[in-house]
Structure formats: structure tokens, C-alpha cells
Amino acid sequence: MKATLCDGIDWVGHVDWIVRDFHGYDTELGATYNAYLIRDEKVALIDTVKAPFAEDLLAHIAALTTPDKIDYVICNHAEPDHASAMPVIMAALPNATVVCNSKCRLALGRHFDTSDWRFHEVTTGDRLPLGKRSLQFINTPMVHWPESMFTYVPEEKILFSMDAFGQHYASSQRFDDEVDLPTVMEEARAYYANIVMPYGQRVKKVLTAAAGLDIEMIAPSHGIIWRSHIDKIIAAYHDWASYKPKPKVLIIYDTMWNSTGEMAKAILEGATQPGVETHLLHIRHTSLTRLVTEVLDAAAIAFGSPTLNTGMMPMAAAALTYLKGLRPSNKAGFSFGSYGWSRGGPEAINDVLEQMRWEITHEPVKAQFRPTPEILERCRLAGMDLARRATLMSKGYSATESTNQVGDDNV
Ligand code: FEO
What we know:
By secondary structure, the protein is an alpha/beta fold. It contains 13 helices and 22 strands. A hairpin with a 2-residue loop joins strand 1 and strand 2. Helix 5 (181-196) packs parallel to helix 7 (230-241) and helix 6 packs antiparallel against helix 7 (230-241). The longest helix has 22 residues, at 373-394. The structure holds MU-OXO-diiron (FEO). MU-OXO-diiron is lined by residues 77, 79, 81-82, 144, 163, 221-222.
């Protein structure tokens, strides 16, 4: 498989068509580990691949040059999906120096025996001449590891952005104008939600830095390369980093004997209003990856579980643990669920929603054993309230401000 970004710069990575579980992330469409080779007076390899695919990377390199010609291995990110091939690669490249920032050097040293590797440390603003071209470096800490870094080639206007702007998407094509754009944007949304979401403030800084660059191509370390729709992915990152919600309501729930399920459907009925997108997501029938992706741009969320052993159901707890770690912000919501002889499920969910600093729109809505018509009506009204808030929040009101706007007609 061959792909040329421009004369002298080629993709030399690996397409993993098979992978469906990327440390818990459901990669339904596979993945790629992108590496790039720049051939100039000096030759630079930008990033490597996951360890099992090191030989594939070396074969791609061998089709373009000989290993002894490679002067630099740029490590933008030390996470093993990009760096775990480095011991094999460095052993195969006798004249290569690793170029990375100081934090990356430390991280590589914790992962591998780097005692025989030559290093050249760089930081933001440093420039490395290659000949006709040069490399500029921009540290991007916590997008999404401390050592994360962009590499920019000003002469070609190409930004090598490691994970940022990436997608888990296996394809025989390499560029955004060769594939189905909505599919790629959806996978970019999933990638942002599951990997980048906790670092919105950092992403904003990166976007500010990127705005100062003249960019004609963004080459991430996963998925397709952006060259025709850069404006779309940049605009999407601005929205996601700002936690800008759509007029969208989610009802996320688990249920045992369908009492909480009936409540969920009543909330859905109330939330189904003109101009409002609604999704009913059964936790045990929705992957955590997809669930979090839907949360990313939702304004309002009802989260339900019956009480089991004085707490919430285990998959509800798993979903909330994952969600809490990703720190979704600017959300309004409430908890709901049934109980039998002891309470605990909806209350435990409410505690987590508060810990995430969501705007709590209602006290936990609960039903003992079966929801009565009155309780189902409360669910419908609470759903209508979420729909109103979602509309307001999509117009720029924050979750907190939505409380003042909807008035006192809550259940
Ligand atoms: Fe694709 Fe953070 O590694």
C-alpha cells in the first residue's frame, strides 16, 4: 500500500483491518498506525507503529530508501500504539537519532532500553533543517499525553498532528477526499470523545497555535489525512473542545424487570420535541465507546438504573466510571430508576452526576417496584424539561443558565 503526500513525503504506516478492541475502545472499522517518511538531504521518519507491525513499517521504508539513509526518527507521542515498534526500528536504522521533547525521552526510557539510542531533544519553536525542507516542533502537552508534540513542515504546509484529528478507521485510501466524509467525521467524533474529551482547554490552546500556521494538510497518526476538509475537522474540534452541545437529549438506562425501562420510554416521549434529537440507549446493548460518543455533543441526559444490592446495576456503574473519567462538561441531567425494598440506584447515579458538575435538573425520579401513571407523567414532564434545556443550550445558554430560563415548571 503506497500513499504520497507530496514529492518526497510518503505514508509508510500500517492498516489494521482486524482490530476491534483498542484497550477497550471498540474499533468497529479497524484502525491505522500512521508513520511518514520525509526524503530530503536528510531523511526523517515521523513516528513508528505498534510493535507487531514493525516489519510492515520496515518493508514500506525499504521500498523508498535504505535503512542506513534514515537520519532522524521523530517521536511525536510515546504511547505504545506509535512507539512500541521503536526498539525494532532503532535496531534496524544504524544512523538514526531520535528527535523528541524531554518528556518523551523520559517516557521512552521507561518503556524501553534506550541506552544505545542517540537523542536530540527539541521543544516548541525549535527547527531542524532537512535540506529543502525543515521540521518545526510544537509541544502539545496533555493532547493527550504529557509528551505529545506536533511536527510541522512549513515548506510543504503539512502538520503531523499525532493523535489529534485522528480517527480509528481502516481504509485502503489515505485522504479525506477519497473516502465517505460523514463516516470519517463520525469516527473523528468517536475518537475525540473517547480519547481527547478530558483535555478541552488544552485542545483550545493547540487550536490557537495551529491557527498561526499555514496548513494545507493535516497528517494524524490514525486514520485518513486531511487535505480537502481541514476546515470541517478544525471547526468540529473547536465545538468539541468548547463542549458546545447540540439540541440533543439522551436517555441512558439499564433495567431488570422493565420498570426503569418504562420510565426511560416515558422520558423519551417527553423529550421528543420538534428540533430536538433524542436517543434511547440501553447500556447493555450499547458499547461504552458509542455511548460516550453520543454524550460528547448532547446537551441533556437522563441516566437511569434500578436499585440492585443498594446501588446501581453493574454496567450502569461501568458506564458512569468511564464517563466520569472523560469529564464531559456543560451537561444538564437527572437520574431515575425503580427500587424494591431499599433505595440506592438512582441516588448513587445522582451522586456521580453531581461529581461531574452537571446541572441537576430534578431530584432522582423513583418508582417502587412499578412506575404508577403519576410517576410516568413525572418522567414525561422531566423529559420535556430536558428538551427545553437542550434547545436553550444549543443556542448558547450554559447548562446552569438553562435553569433560570426554563422557569419553575419542573416536576
Ligand atoms: Fe494513538 Fe495516544 O496513541
